[in-house]
Amino acid sequence: MARNTSASNHEVVEDCIFCLIANDRDKETEVLKKNEELVCFTDIDPAAPHHYLVIPIEHIHSCSSLHVEHAGLVRRMVEMGKAVLREQGVTDMKDIRLGFHMPPYISVNHLHLHVLAPSSQIFKAKIYKFIPGNIDFITEEHLQKQLKKSWNIQPFKTQWKGNKLISKRQ
């Protein structure tokens, strides 16, 4: 895995598409909002009429890599996601879903917050990916509670037992 440092002194993992997007090295992705810490853009495989991803510019593998000091980062990710929803014309902020996929259920190994609206219109074929309390999707509220408890989020160990997929925290 090749790693470089960007002009903003953030580590760039060369084979991480989100690192490339965050550091203006992907020309195909339209960035909706960016500051010195975060970037927001549209998900390439949307599950709702509004489906955005908020990522830190710094390469953080997943929410399993977070600890109590990251609580502010998660809060700022949520704030940016909500701001983009408002900028995109979403007015019912009670009909939104914000959360993270847990390893091994992540498609890109770079922390990203899913911002979906309206949550009542998440596409039926994709709703299973965004069910709060499921083993693979953790809401931002649940993550914040765990970070405040100083609990290190442990990844799930997934294995087959017979014809059943069993997942439990390591």
Automatic annotation (TrEMBL):
Query: Known catalysed reaction(s)?
Result: adenosine 5'-phosphoramidate + H2O = NH4(+) + AMP
GO MF terms here are:
catalytic activity
Q: Which domain of life is it from?
A: Eukaryota
Q: Which positions does the motif Histidine triad motif occupy?
A: 110-114
Which residue range or ranges hold the HIT domain? 17-128
State the active site: 112 (tele-amp-histidine intermediate)
Family, per entry: Belongs to the HINT family.
Query: What is the protein name given in its UniProt record?
Result: Histidine triad nucleotide-binding protein 3-like
Q: What organism does the record attribute this protein to?
A: Echeneis naucrates (Live sharksucker)
**Gene name of the record:** LOC115037768
